[in-house]
Design goal:
- The structure is a single chain.
- This protein is mainly alpha-helical and 550 residues long.
- The protein has one domain: Amino acid/polyamine transporter I, CATH 1.20.1740.10.
- Helix 6 packs across helix 12 and helix 18 packs across helix 20.
- It is a multi-pass membrane protein.
């Protein structure tokens, strides 16, 4: 594993600086055979944990410094739903409508988008219980295609994908909060950035303080956005019962004001597919799920149909109050809907958008920090990011990196331009991961699979994926080209930072000093409790472990 020499020397350095000798209890907990330093437990992490632990925490106590399994089924569903449903369904569902040319075809595209997301989530459910490691796509691609492929996915995600998405959500939140203060103009640039940073800092603190707090916030705000969308749907049904459904009659719904080409349909489908982005986020926190073998697939099977139902009926409700032309001309569809039908309570819609984005920021921070944690644990990111707080058991260094990367993107980048590249990279990663499922079926047909989907499921998904990818390359060559360049910039970084093991001693000394300083500042250590592979046997069954067995 890359980085082992560095971590061994780091352990020696920290052990030499400890003031007290290791307690006898340490001898009673031998390192599990085959455990690598990156996986958390073992000699080095044990000494770090005991050296950094407060005096009131005796070494050898039953309580281990490890990621806690605190995400139940309800919170798991909240993570998926909260990350899928962002501000888009409230603000601008017109992207699908303008490319389809009719109400009826737009609704069909929304249903198909949910269907394709369901196919993808079924594939991820199989991968999630076959390779039960936090990190999602990164962990699966690394296991199946090797370290370089996994690192490139990790590099693009940490460098631009998640910081840019977080920045867009945070700016949307601040704009809607500030809108009442600046009713007749766009909120000032500096004001929106400052409020976004305050929101990010607050949620970073919450996520660093307690996993339970973070999941409760996700539960509450997901319930809030579902209630807001439920209000829209109920008002829409009231409109239908009143007879206001002219736009939904077949004769009107399929009355095309433009004839959509194959290209238009592809763009419409792409818009619909991106609205479901986030369906794979639960796979990033597999190791913190309670009974992941059951709750991972259950949460997916509950959440994706629910989101598809909500998206489709929310769009139906919009058409009971607005004509297609009104919807296309609105910059915030839910706000326009509220102004037309809710009267005095129209303020509910902008508040709902703000609350929805606040919950989205929390969900993105929670899951993206676990991606950094997983990458560092495998030696692909600085080892400090693989450490957790000795009391709160949260990956504080990884959370801080995610927060700071988002702030940098927010300050120095054209955030709304970068999101175009992010969409392409994200979609590319989905397809590569699901290709990996088929490759794993071929390379390792006999490994333990608690869930095994029909082979037609990944093939159907990849058929749609290939069509949209080819069309994207044809219609947006610059955007796709820049996206590929961003991914490929990780190749030299991999060979210098990961593959090159025998670095000069001065580099290792600097790295060790920075890591040791970071440990003291953040009060973090390597997890003692081991990874999920130890805690959940025989459920966890890594393909690479299977390959190494005699």
């Amino acid at each position: 594993m890359a980085g082992e020499n560095q971590q061994r020397s780091l352990r020696k350095s920290i052990a030499a600086q400890q003031q007290q000798p290791a307690p006898p209890a340490r001898q009673e907990q031998p390192q599990p055979p085959g455990k690598t330093p990156q996986q958390g437990s073992g000699g080095g992490s044990g000494s770090r944990a005991e050296g950094a632990a407060p005096p009131s925490s005796p070494a050898g106590a039953a309580e281990k410094v490890a990621l806690k399994k605190e995400i139940g089924l309800v919170s798991a569903c909240a993570i998926i739903i909260g990350n899928i449903i962002g501000s888009g369904i409230f603000i601008s569902p017109k992207g699908v409508l303008e490319h389809t040319g009719s109400v009826g075809l737009a609704l069909i595209i929304w249903v198909l988008g949910g269907g394709i997301a369901a196919l993808g989530s079924l594939c991820y459910a199989e991968l999630g219980v076959t390779i039960p490691k936090s990190g999602g796509d990164y962990s699966y691609v690394s296991e199946i295609f090797g370290e370089l492929a996994g690192f490139l996915l990790l590099w693009s995600a940490v460098l631009i994908m998640y910081p840019t998405s977080l920045a867009v959500i945070a700016l949307t939140f601040s704009n809607y909060v500030l809108q009442p203060v600046f009713p007749n103009c766009i909120p000032p640039y500096n004001a929106s950035r400052v409020l976004s940073m305050v929101c990010l800092s607050l949620l970073t603190w919450v996520n660093g303080s307690s996993v339970r707090w973070a999941t409760r916030i996700q539960d509450i705000f997901t319930a809030g956005k579902l209630l807001a969308l439920g209000l829209i749907i109920v008002v829409g049904f009231v409109q239908i019962f009143k007879g206001n459904y002219e736009e939904l009659l077949p004769s009107n719904a399929f009355n095309f004001w433009m004839t959509p080409s194959v290209g238009h349909l592809a763009l419409a489908f792409l818009q619909g597919s991106f609205a479901f982005s986030g369906w794979n986020f639960l796979n990033y926190v597999t190791e913190e799920l309670v009974d992941p073998r059951r709750n991972l697939p259950r949460a997916i099977f509950i959440s994706i149909p629910l989101v598809t139902f909500v998206y489709t009926f929310t769009n139906i409700a919009y058409f009971t109050a607005m004509s297609p032309q009104e919807l296309l001309s609105s910059n915030a569809v839910a706000v326009t809907f509220g102004e037309k039908l809710l009267g005095y309570f129209s303020w509910v819609m902008p508040v709902s958008v703000a609350l929805s984005t606040f919950g989205g920021i929390n969900g993105y921070l929670f899951t993206s920090s676990r991606l950094c944690f997983s990458g560092a644990r495998e030696g692909h990111l600085p080892s400090l990011l693989a450490m957790i707080h000795v009391q709160h058991c949260t990956p504080i260094p990884a959370l801080l990196v995610c927060c700071l990367a988002t702030v940098v993107i927010m300050l120095v980048g054209d955030t709304y331009t970068l999101i175009n590249y992010v969409s392409f990279i994200n979609y590319l990663c989905y397809g590569v991961t699901i290709i990996g499922l088929i490759v794993l079926r071929w390379k390792k047909p006999k490994i333990f699979r608690p869930i095994k989907v029909n082979l037609l499921v990944p093939i159907t998904y990849l058929t749609f994926w290939a069509f949209l990818l080819i069309f994207s390359l044809y219609s947006e060559p610059v955007v796709c080209g820049v996206g590929l360049i961003i991914i490929l910039t990780g190749v030299p970084v991999f060979f210098i930072g990961v593959y090159w093991k025998n670095k000069p001693k001065c580099v290792n000394r600097i790295t060790e000093s920075l890591t040791h300083w970071g440990q003291k500042v953040c009060f973090v250590v390597y997890p003692q409790g081991g990874s999920i592979e130890e805690d959940d046997l025989p459920f966890t069954h890594s393909p690479l472990q299977e390959e190494k067995r005699p």
